[in-house]
Structure formats: C-alpha cells, structure tokens
C-alpha cells in the first residue's frame, strides 16, 4: 500500500511531466495576433465610427427640434403672458 507521502510525490511527478509535455502558448498565438487581430480591429473601428456618426446625427436632430420648438414658442408668446409682470410693468419697459 502507498502512503500519503509517496502518493503526493507520484502525483507531483505526473503533474510536472504533463506540464512539460504541453506546448507553450506562444507557439500557437502567431495566427491570432497576425490574422484574426487585424480584421477584428478593423470591424471594431468601423463599428465605433458608425456609432459616433449615429450619435452625432441624433444630437443634431434633437438640437434642431429644440430650436424649432423654442422659436415657435417665442413667436406665439404674448407679452402679457410673462409670469410675474403686470400690464403696467410691461408697457413701462417698452421703448
């Protein structure tokens, strides 16, 4: 029968043998960094550019809508509808 010490030594030797038999990662990562990395970077760059252009167009659209709403509300506002001022104060401020 094998005691605990001998079992741990055998397991350690088997582990070291397995580690030595495994090929290093750097032997197989060349294709990943040279081939796959380039096309993925281009696709990510294209995606980021498309998102940026979309956000810019949405921002411009919202800006135009808010300016149009502001212009239309200013055009339809009556001078007497200004809160806090009476008709006498309004006519006193006019040139």
Condensed summary:
The protein is mainly alpha-helical. It contains 3 helices and no strands. The longest helix has 47 residues, at 30-76.
Overall shape: it is elongated
Largest sheet features: none
Number of helices: 3
Instruction: Supply Rg.
Output: 37 Å
E-strand count: 0
Separation, N- and C-terminal Cα atoms: 112 Å
Helical amount: over 70%
Average pLDDT across residues?
A: 75
Structural class estimated from helices and strands: mainly alpha
How much strand?
under 5%
Order of helices and strands: HHH
Low-confidence stretches: none
Which structural traits does this protein have?
mainly alpha; 3 helices; 95 residues
Summarize the structure in words.
The structure is a single chain. This protein is an all-alpha fold and 95 residues long. The protein contains three helices and no strands. The relative contact order is 0.04.
Tell me the layout of helices and strands:
Blueprint: H1 4-21, H2 30-76, H3 87-93
């Amino acid at each position: 029968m094998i005691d605990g010490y001998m079992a741990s030594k055998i397991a350690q030797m088997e582990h070291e043998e397995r580690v030595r038999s495994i090929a290093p990662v750097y032997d197989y990562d060349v294709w990943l960094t040279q081939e796959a990395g380039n096309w993925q970077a281009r696709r990510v760059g294209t995606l980021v550019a498309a998102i940026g252009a979309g956000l810019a167009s949405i921002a411009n659209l919202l800006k135009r809508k808010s300016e149009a709403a502001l212009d239309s509300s200013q055009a339809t506002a009556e001078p007497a509808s200004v809160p806090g001022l009476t008709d006498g104060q309004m006519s006193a401020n006019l040139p």
